[in-house]
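Hi all, long-time lurker, first post. I run a small reading group and we've been trying to get comfortable going from sequence to structure in the token notation. Rather than ask abstract questions, I figured I'd post a concrete chain and ask someone more experienced to write out its structure so we can walk through it together at our next meeting. Sequence below, copied exactly:
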Amino acid sequence: MEDIETRLAAGLGQRLPWAGLAFAVGFTCGGEALSRLIDANWGVGSLLGFAALQSFGMGMALTRPLRRRPPYHVSVTSEKAGPCRWLVVAASGGAPGQGSPAGRAIGWQRQAGRLERVFVLYTDNDRGRGFYEKVLAESIRHGLSPDVIAPVRLDPQARWDPDLVVPALDDIYRDAAEQGRDPTDVLLDYTGGSVSFTAAMTLVAARPGCRLAQIRPDRMTPKGQPDPDAGSTQMEVERGCELRRR
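-- Answer (accepted) --
Happy to help. Here is the structure in token form:
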């Protein structure tokens, strides 16, 4: 990354607008005469105010190149998730009286009709095992055989450390390749997972061909909570990067 001195020199030497340059020179050259006029007619207070305005104008003119937009633009869009063969979800409890986000993701893909395996990430402690049992029960209610569910047990510290989650995801993609599956056959759904689970899935999904999704409620209550009566939709996240000319 360029340091600020390099960027300032480059900006002054190459990209300083003529309008800004004219403003800076004119404001500087005429500043002394205008300062005397202000001091003679309105006093020291007005003179100080003018000096502050002059400094601000010079700063704006000289630093304009540093405020240019970056040469790239990252866009994130989403649309209804397409079917997948392998689904990866994070076990969590969900809102009281509602199914877990992982259970809703499984139900969505179950309806899509191509689901073959479900990998459930959970931490190896009482809380994590309880979440996994809940997701397993919901999967069975969706009509899946317990044999389809593959538990992925993680170190309890994985709740705070993405580096402990990424290797488990790598293993899933490795297994998929060994069984003749393409990365596009695998869908990572981060809904309901801890921050580290979400970070790990997002990092892995940045690789070519990998897919990322989330469960989005179809309607919110006046209190800002998902409306359980409105249902939800699995949305696949699409990322794009557009390069711009500087």
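A couple of things your group might point at:
Residues 4-67 form one domain.
The two ends are 16 Å apart (CA to CA).
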